[in-house]
Amino acid sequence: TQLLEQSPQFLSIQEGENLTVYCNSSSVFSSLQWYRQEPGEGPVLLVTVVTGGEVKKLKRLTFQFGDARKDSSLHITAAQPGDTGLYLCAGSGPLSGGSYIPTFGRGTSLIVHP
Amino acid sequence: KAGVTQTPRYLIKTRGQQVTLSCSPISGHRSVSWYQQTPGQGLQFLFEYFSETQRNKGNFPGRFSGRQFSNSRSEMNVSTLELGDSALYLCASSLGEVTFFGQGTRLTVV
In the 8-state DSSP scheme, what is residue A27? Predict the structure, then answer.
C-alpha cells in the first residue's frame, strides 16, 4: 500500500505569514493532486502536478512536485483567513484495470487568524 | 458543467438499520469512487465503479456495497449500521488521473 505522509498535521498562523506544507512518500506517483477541504464539505481540487520538478502557481499558492515524483510541497504567501481549511495531497499511480485510485495523506489542518 | 452531486446531504439512522446513498458524477465521467472520511482515519477508499462494474475495492467489510447504473450514477449501501459507521461519505468521479469530489453525505448513526 502506498502511503503519503503530510506535515505538519496542524498549523495555526496569523494573517500575512507565509507557510509551507509537505507531502512525502517512498513511492513514485505518476501524478499528485492537492485539495482543500472546508468542514462538512467535499475536497476541492486545487492543482494536479505530473512532471518531476514541476512548479505550478495559483495566485498566492505555489505547488512543487519533487524531481523523483515522490514528494510535493505547497507554499502559501501572505496567508489570509480564507485560506483556512484542511489541505490534502493525493498521489495517483496506474492500477490494474486502468484506474488511478488516489492515495490520500491525512491532511494539514490550517487556521489563519485575522 | 455540473459537479458531482450527492444526496442526501445529511442522514441520521439507528444502529442495525440500512442506508443507501446516491451519487451523480460529472457528465462524461465513467469512473465513480466512494470514500469514508472520519477524523481519526482520514479519507479511506471504499470502492470504485467503472462502466457498471466494480473495478477496485478497499478494505471494508461486506456490509458496505455499491453499484453503478448505465448512466454512471452510483449508489452505496451500508447494511446493519454500527455506531462506527458515522462519517462523511464522499463520492468522486474521475476522468483519467483527475478526481473531483461531491459535497458528501454526513451520516450519523445513533
Answer: S
**Chain B contact residues (CB < 8 Å to A):** 4, 6, 31, 33, 42-43, 45, 48, 50, 55-56, 88, 90, 94, 96-104, 106
Tens digits of residue pLDDT in A44-75: 999 999 899 999 999 999 999 999 988 999 99
pLDDT, position B1? 59
Residue of B nearest to A42 (CA): B103
In B1-110, DSSP assigns E strands to 5-7, 10-13, 19-24, 31-38, 42-50, 53-57, 64-68, 74-78, 87-95, 98-101, 105-109
Residues of A in contact with B98 (CB under 8 A): 33, 45, 48
Instruction: Return the closest-CA partner of residue B45 out of B60, B30, B31.
Output: B60
Which residue does chain A place closest to B93, by CA atoms? A101
Nearest CB among A99, A104, A107 relative to B55 is that of A99
**A7, A21 contact by CB (below 8 A):** yes
User: What are φ and ψ of residue A27, in 5° steps?
Assistant: -105, 155
Grouping H, G, I as helix, E, B as strand and the rest as coil, residue B84 is helix
Look at residues B11, B103, B45 and name the one whose alpha carbon lies nearest to residue A37.
Answer: B103
d(CA B91, CA B86): 16
A18-45 CB burial, b ≥16 within 10 A, e <16 = ebebbbbbeeebebbbbbbbeeebbbbb
pLDDT < 70 positions in chain B: 1
